[in-house]
Write a structure and sequence with these properties.
This protein is α+β, with helices and mostly antiparallel strands. It folds into 2 domains: 1-50, no CATH class; 87-173, Pantoate--beta-alanine Ligase, Chain: A,domain 2 (2-Layer Sandwich). The chain has helices at 28-31, 57-84, 87-105; strands at residues 116-121, 124-136, 150-159, 162-173. The protein has a 4-stranded antiparallel β-sheet, with helices on one face.
């Protein structure tokens, strides 16, 4: 049975039989240029039209694949940035923990301030704090010099996400 063009419904066309009474040959239409498969038209009897509006299954699958690749390309950097979004907060907390330690040391005299080993900060489970004290030359703060009257106090706060820690440096003099 041949199908009507898309959007139209019609009865199958019947060709009048020739008067010669030739026997029925199912391959007559094939020889006449019509593509028939097992008594159906080339669209296998489903009435599929090439100019019909809409998408084929292959087109839909290709669109889904392309969109998923695009979303992965956008999504991976987005997830990484979300993971790293807490770093400013961690650094700020570390800074204030170091500032707190420097304020604890401020009432002490310059000579009584001593170094402290790296230890956990109470109330802040992931943070550790260390205090280093060094006598330096008052004219060149990077040169160590014992008895110069200038002390460089370095408070370093560590966190697992900040491997080098946050350093706060203060200079105390005996004057």
């Amino acid at each position: 049975m041949l199908h009507a063009p898309c959007g139209e419904r019609s009865e199958p066309k019947r060709t009048p039989r020739k008067e010669s009474r030739q026997p029925f040959d199912p391959f007559d239409k094939l020889r006449a240029g019509k593509q028939m498969v097992a008594g159906r038209n080339k669209n296998f009897g489903f009435g599929i039209c090439r100019n019909a509006a809409g998408f084929t299954l292959v087109e839909v699958i290709l669109i889904i694949v392309m969109v998923s690749i695009f979303m992965a390309a956008i999504g991976i950097p987005l997830l990484n940035s979300l993971r790293e979004s807490d770093l400013p907060e961690i650094a700020t907390i570390a800074y204030f923990l170091g500032l707190e330690k420097l304020e604890e040391l401020s009432p002490q005299t310059t000579g009584s301030i001593s170094a402290e080993a790296r230890a956990a900060v109470s109330g802040y489970g992931d943070y550790e704090r260390e205090v280093a004290v060094e006598d330096v030359d008052c004219n060149d703060l990077s040169t160590p010099q014992a008895g110069s009257g200038c002390r460089k106090i370095t408070v370093t706060v560590y966190h697992s996400r900040i491997p080098n820690g946050v350093n706060l440096v203060s200079l105390r003099t005996a004057y």
